[in-house]
Amino acid sequence: MKKIIATLILLVFTFYIYGTIKNFKFGKDFLNARENRASISKKLEPAGKHYLENNKIENNSANVVTSIVVSYRGFDTLGEVTVLFLAATGLGVILTLNKKEEENEERESSLIVKTAARILFPLIFLFGIYVFVHGHLTPGGGFQGGTIIATAYLMMFLSYGKFKINHTVFKVIESMSGITFATIGLVGLIGFGIFLKLDLIPLGTFNTLLSAGLIPVVYIVVGFKVGSELTAVVDSYRENW
Questions:
Q1: Sequence-separated (6 or more) residues with CB below 8 Å from residue 149
Q2: Of 120, 166, 172, 188, which is most buried with the most CB atoms under 10 A?
């Protein structure tokens, strides 16, 4: 059953990738275009100019960079998330195979360090959530916010030698986040021909928290996915070093 589902997903992606590149002109047409670059450039609108002038109308996001990453370049973002997942999975497998049988002595940090870590952990965690929830309004986003969350757990690992996380919970969060991201993208792609079609929900009021359509939702999903993956990687590395 898993092979059938994987094959169907692969066929869907192949179909849409082919539909995207089949209209690209390669070879002679491209060379002719380069020879007439001066005349063509007057007719073509630069991508950067289009993003800056049309972002508010198309995405209603105050952060243009966010719109580029999630909207105009959303399919590439799916690739980045996939690469992170594969890297985390591969590292986890390698560390498991090379796991040391002997147990290293776990050393506790000083009382001051542990107290500071215990106080700072929820603050850093909340700051990470703030960064990806407000990614469409201010500099930041899912990758940055998720990394901040993983940093909070890293601080706890360094401060408390016996600090543990529930890998099952983190795997569920990571899996559900990835499935949600892919599902949102495929719904837009199959239903409307646009991967991560942002206006599936109202775009909202510009420069407010409830704006930019699906961008905040996507960044929340990416934030939890990145945070859970990096935390699991750090913990696996710590346990098997």
A1: 124, 125, 128, 129, 223, 227, 230, 231
A2: 188
